[in-house]
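Recap from last week: sequence in, structure out.
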Amino acid sequence: MLRKVDKNEKKRAIALAAIPLLAKFGLVKTSVEAIAKEANVAKGTVYLYFKTKEEIVLEIWNYANELLDKNRKENFSKDSTASEKINHYFDFSILEEDHNMDILLKLLAMNMSTILNFSHDGLVKHFKQERIKEIDTLEKILKEGTNSGEFKTIDINLTANLFANSFHGTLLNSIAINKNIDEIRAIIHPQIDFLIDSIKS
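Predicted structure tokens:
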């Protein structure tokens, strides 16, 4: 008996197959034909799941965020301190299990350029939603740390934004000057540790 095709699995498989192409050639220069060939499907099948190439990018980031959220949730349940939760929040090593992080980082840089230029509504909306979720999560962790006495009294929203801005700014700047994942991690982790130390009681 033939296995019934799971539409969500198929959609995701097409999007993930497009990652190296998008990272190498960019959104504009990557054709739907090339994506179809990489995913081993017909061009019409790609259009069956995605109206635009931007939707493929959104599916890739939905996939990455789902993995990161799952990893954070699992680690947060084990962590005993707010500091540990912050460190786990900015840990994206779970993605390395199945993907070349340097390729994902190139893709991230390309799409951040699109987002910052406000040239695609879907990507901009997605970025804003993820930013709101990120700040909300960091605020909850920081409140937990202040309530337990681990952190001193701080402006929760300002500090959450400081963590997020420091992480994303360093990440994008490092990608722009072609640092690899190990070099980026060597820069980011000490910065996060420094910020944590600065708010500890």
